[in-house]
Amino acid sequence: MTRLNRPVPDWLLWWLFAAAGFLVTAYAVVTGHKLNYYDEFDYLLLADNIASGEGYSVGNDTSLTRPWVGTDGPTAFRPPTWPLLLAAFRSMQAPLWMLSALPAIFLVVAAVLAKGVASRFGRPAGWLAAFGVLLYPINIYTAGTLYPQTLATSLMLGALVLGFRMKALTWWRSALFGLLLIALVYAAPTMLFTAIVIAVWGCWQNRRTLIRFVVPALLAGLLPAVLWIGRNAVEFDQFILVSTSTGQNLLLGNSPNTTADSGVSADIESFTDTAIERRLDEREADRYYSSAAGNWIREHPSDAAALYVAKVANYFSPYNAPATTGEGGRLEQLISWLAFAPILVLAALRLLLRRRWPLGSGEGLAYALFLGNALFMAVTFTRVRFRQPLDSLVIIEAAVFLAFVLGAWLRRSQTVKGADFR
Q: pTM for the whole thing?
């Protein structure tokens, strides 16, 4: 019993963590180069065009000419963080297998950051969170794709770690905080609500030195935004804040054929046919799709309200069938359920037992982000992939709860053992 109570040394845990990270990266390299999803081809095409000097465009490639994506030439359909990062490696002639390792590397970074967040509640909570995030099956699966979700996870957790450590406020910490949040929005626009809430939380954390905090953060965050908006103004002669995919997403989530879990599979062909007939460009199509979605909501308020509630419920689903035919299956569905349901239950128990173990600083923020995003994302449509970065917050809360329970059990067992000797 004495040996069981001794803590596992950190060096051993780091070696185990490194080994697990290596295996996840190896899995990503082996599986990631297959590019099974449309979005992966799009990101790679944009990266290659940037690296070859064609700019942020789809060139003459036909893979991006699907009606809801845009036409040949300059594009703003995909936000820039992920394609620009991929382009930096492609410009150095990095092969596809090397790019495939990037999502896994960002997952490892996210796991280390999760450890930093959870360690405020003790060493066991930190390590449980680190291994939980790294070995979460949905995270591992995403790390095997060329999606920016693991990057978004690391950016979000990085901003949270900075926020918790702002007591020694410096201009570079504040600037990095702002830069991480704008990069988060431009990596995954579905994380806009998350970035706004974290920004407000950061301001509250530093309310006594608000000016010193806000000015560097705002300047660092505005610079990339101004560059992107300026580029779009030059190319399209219009103001485009994030991307031209908003209208498509609104229509996919609010149309006659939309269901709670249809996602990008919703049939909007009649609208895309109209866009083609009218020869709408990318920005015009974006406005047309937004208008069509708004019209449907106004004309069918009860149906729209019921659909919204169903999409909110779907946000908590452990699994959504992929839009790409042939991907996913019963095994993936079972693994998703077995992975998500336990951490959701543990995080819920953490909240329910908050009187016994009061919530620490930032835990309320984690729950607000996870639950609030259900209401935000349901405005368009909800998918496990969109929610996946936020699952790390649930894993952290589950780790904290497990650490408290294990600590209480060990203290109880030690008390009983001491009583036996008395």
A: 0.92
